[in-house]
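User: I'm writing a tutorial on reading structure tokens. Could you give me a worked example: one chain, its sequence, then its tokens, then a sentence or two explaining what the tokens reveal?
Assistant: Sure. Here is the example chain.
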Amino acid sequence: MNAAYICPAVTAFTRSGDLDLQAQKSVYDNLILGKIGGILILGSIGEFFSIPIDRKKALIREAIMHINKRAQVIVGTASMDVNEVVELSNYAYDQGADAVIIVSPYYFALSPSGIEEYYDYLAERCRGDIYLYNFPERTGYDLSPEIALNLVRKHRNIVGYKDTVTGMDHTRELIKLIKPEFPDFKIYSGYDNNFAQNVLAGGDGCIGGLSNLVPEICSAWVTAFLQDDLAGVAAIQQTIDKLMGIYSVGKPFIPYIKAAMNLRGIPIRAFSTFPMPVPAKQDVKKLRLIMEQANLLA
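And here are its predicted structure tokens:
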């Protein structure tokens, strides 16, 4: 049985919108202290979509240098400019990234053949491992299990898939279709509450945002699975289910995750790229209540 939890790390900003690299290092250190084995930088929760490429490169360079092999590093390199994706991906490999993760183009939906052609283009030009990233709520279409299988058969450097869908039906079909032929291909769920179902179905775990807040709980979930501690798995599922309420406190949820982290004493402020809001006092109260109900705060 495989079980892993990778954290899609938030990106720390100052009030003026600059990268807060000191706070960012504290985020990484807290994840590593919490025994998270893999860190994804510049994912969706990392606000890749609103950071210019020069700042992305600075963040990649500083992150890989600071993490210093203490955890696996995956870099989100998505862009609407495919040549920028290639440039940033190869830059990340050169800096020491273990892999990159690339969401399909958004705004205009692609046909199934168009999706496949897009990843063919990238796989042939990116010099390292690639994770596919399916997020239909953001792209407007599905990167189907059938397309994924076609791509894996053609490209040895396509090594994994993050499936950000609310249920497990789609991910389960992905596992059933790809794992028998490619058992080492990694399949992760994108929502925290799907971690246990993913592992039980034969997947590899989760790349979920709550691990920014409770890395020690997420890593304990992995340990419970590896030790066949089903009572422990169930208990942590109930805690995570309570914490899922954080995603609904405000939209987009990213600043609210940061505010919750701050409540736990992680030195990051709730600033995000404009026009994301700064959580109001009543929102922080809601966060505090959710966390108290999950026994995270005294």
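What the tokens reveal: Residues 1 and 262 are 35 Å apart (CA to CA). The chain has one domain: 4-213.
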